[in-house]
Specification:
This protein has a 9-stranded mixed sheet, with helices on both faces. The chain contains 13 helices and 26 strands. The radius of gyration is 27 Å and the shape is elongated. Strand 6 (about 190-200) and strand 7 (about 205-210) form a beta hairpin. Helices cover about 25% and strands about 20% of the residues.
């Protein structure tokens, strides 16, 4: 719809024209009627191949008047002919009667706090920040900015309000764009250089941002991929290579990085967002700079960062240099660079959630313009309304309950330039995220009650391991898991009355043990051996025969025999982490 110049008459605040529809939960534009002018529709066309598209800009773009902010490429103060009166016919039962045609009655201005709620009702969801911009911001214009790439079936197909959300943020080292030639490797296809899996809990009280080192040695699975030209290609997987090769190498797209993350962590990813060098520069400039702190002077010839000890506000080229710095901080490795990137993003979160940002229409407009131009997203959220909904879900988490951490790794004994998974700690971190356990001190009474109830179920006498009788099925665990579990039970734990029954009739979401009431003592022993929570125990209503076995079905949460199946209540000691509400100085 042609809305250029809308809201300027008689001092009306454009934000006041957006009203929450209680039936849909979305903000809708409600205009009072004008003097009989017709509205023009605006169309957008798809100009890219199916694998990667960027919608063309709408022919007529709306322009807000708040803070005199204008959409790039438009002249401020110009009014479009044909301002519409599409909202002239109000719905039956509307409490507000339409005023006389030709005049608009100005509403009392909202307080700063209420206006901030309107301005933040919308779409940005920048990386892992989760701050929505606004449903007010010119739907067609910003939709035309968005670049999308197919998920190729690697994601869940979308997020929902009733479960946890996993968003993969990928920073590429692609050198395209003005001013990026001097960073070397100008021909890079753009690898998965910076990788953060942002997990938001089901109840939206906490979140974990897990950094995955680019130099981690891991397997990349086979990746069916839709290419830019629309063709579909099955890209074969690799074993024992760097994680960053999951993008760019052999025509791999972000969907392949999604698959690699799922293989590594056991977590299915809902969506991805990709940012390149230009995204860092434009977004940090749009927000008015990000506050950082240095514990020492830095003059890094490789990243071109030159800053004195103390606090600084950086943006644009300087912000990019900060994020690329590694030789001058910590141990000079990519792991040290990850730490200062986490500190930077935590500061950016605080800046975006500050009143200075939320109550500035011009700053929010600049952010929306920069974000929709700079970020590449998956095709499931390639729409302003979908981004807005995602942003609203992420925005509810308090920064004090957002933890940045890194996949626990060890130096690779065969190649000092790479790292390998720390198998004593990494599985615990993955398990906590899969089971939605917070890394911060978030406590809920209902969660405490649930744990108490589970603990009560496990109390009671336990049978001896030699008396446990169980059939083991594979219900969605990795291939060979049933035999792996059987060998461990018999050879390591003495559960000799156990058999491998191969694949289960149906897969299960999580490992479960079905037992009869008279097998409760056996169930407790097996749960204790395997580190199963009480929620995994499924009692039947009738007793079993003397020779009848329990049924253990291994789900996707089973990774290796001997590894506990229930998530630990707290993170392993000595893992690297920082909370988003804390300012930390780079060392």
């Amino acid at each position: 719809m042609d809305a250029q110049g809308r809201g300027r008459d008689e001092g009306i605040d454009p934000a006041d024209q957006w009203v929450l529809n209680p039936d849909t939960g979305d903000y809708e534009l409600r205009l009072t009627p004008s003097s009989g002018r017709s509205s023009a529709s605006v169309g957008a066309t798809d100009t890219r191949a199916p694998g990667q598209r960027r919608r063309s800009k709408p022919q007529a773009q709306a322009q807000p008047s708040a803070d005199r902010a204008s959409v790039p490429g438009q002249r401020s103060g110009r009014r479009a002919a044909g301002r519409g009166d599409r909202d002239e016919a109000r719905r039956p039962g509307s409490r507000a009667a339409a005023p006389a045609a030709g005049r608009r009655k100005a509403k009392p201005r909202k307080s700063g706090k209420k206006k901030a709620l309107v301005w933040t009702g919308g779409v940005l969801a920048f990386l892992l920040v989760g701050v929505g911009t606004t449903g007010y911001f010119l739907y067609e214009h910003f939709n035309g900015n968005i670049t999308a790439i197919s998920t190729d079936g690697a994601g869940t197909g979308g997020f929902s309000k009733d479960r946890a959300i996993n968003v993969l943020v990928i920073g590429t080292d692609k050198r395209t764009g003005e001013g990026n030639e001097g960073y070397g490797d100008a021909g890079s296809v753009g690898h998965a250089d910076t990788n953060i899996l942002f997990h938001v809990s089901k109840d939206r009280t906490n979140a974990t941002a897990l950094s995955i080192p680019r130099d981690l040695i891991t397997d990349v699975p086979d990746c069916p991929t839709r290419l830019e030209n629309g063709e579909t290609k099955d890209i074969p997987g690799t074993t024992g290579g760097r994680f960053n090769a999951s993008l760019g190498q052999s025509d791999r797209t972000p969907s392949c990085t999604m698959r690699t993350v799922t293989e590594l962590t056991g977590m299915k990813v809902d969506h991805f967002m990709v940012a390149d060098f230009n995204a860092v520069k434009s977004l940090t400039t749009a927000v008015g700079g990000v506050d950082v702190c240095l514990a020492k002077d830095i003059d890094d010839k490789d990243s071109h960062l030159k800053l004195s000890q103390g606090e600084h506000t950086i943006e644009g080229e300087q912000a990019l240099s900060f994020l690329r710095t590694r030789h001058s901080v910590g141990f000079g490795s990519d792991l040290s660079r990850i730490e200062i990137q986490q500190q930077f993003l935590a500061s950016l979160m605080r800046k975006l959630k500050s009143n200075d940002t939320l109550t500035s229409p011009s700053k929010m407009l600049s952010l929306a313009e920069a974000a929709t131009n700079a970020l590449t997203v998956d095709d499931k959220i390639a729409d302003i309304n979908q981004l807005r909904k995602l942003g609203m879900e992420l925005a509810s988490v308090d920064p004090k309950n957002i933890t940045f951490t890194t996949v626990p790794v060890l130096d690779n004994p065969d190649d000092k330039a790479t790292v390998i998974l720390d198998k004593s700690k990494a599985p615990q971190v993955f398990s906590m995220m899969r089971e939605d356990v917070s890394f911060t001190a978030v406590k809920k009474k209902e969660k405490a009650a649930e744990k108490a109830a589970e603990a009560a179920k496990l109390k009671g006498e336990m049978a001896a391991a030699a008396d446990v009788r169980v059939d083991v099925f594979n219900g969605g665990a990795p291939a060979g898991s049933a035999q792996n579990a059987l060998d461990w039970l018999q050879n390591e734990e003495g559960v000799l009355k156990s058999t491998n029954q191969a694949n289960a009739p149906e897969n299960v979401k999580k490992t479960q043990l079905v037992y009869a009431p008279n097998q409760a003592d056996q169930a407790r022993r097996l749960a204790d051996l395997m580190g199963m929570s009480a929620s995994a125990l499924k009692p039947t209503t009738t007793d079993a025969g003397d020779m009848e076995p329990m049924v253990l079905t291994l789900g996707p949460d089973f990774t290796e025999a001997g590894s506990p199946l229930s998530a630990p209540e707290k993170a392993p000691d000595e893992i690297q982490r920082v909370e988003a509400d804390k300012a930390v100085c780079a060392k």
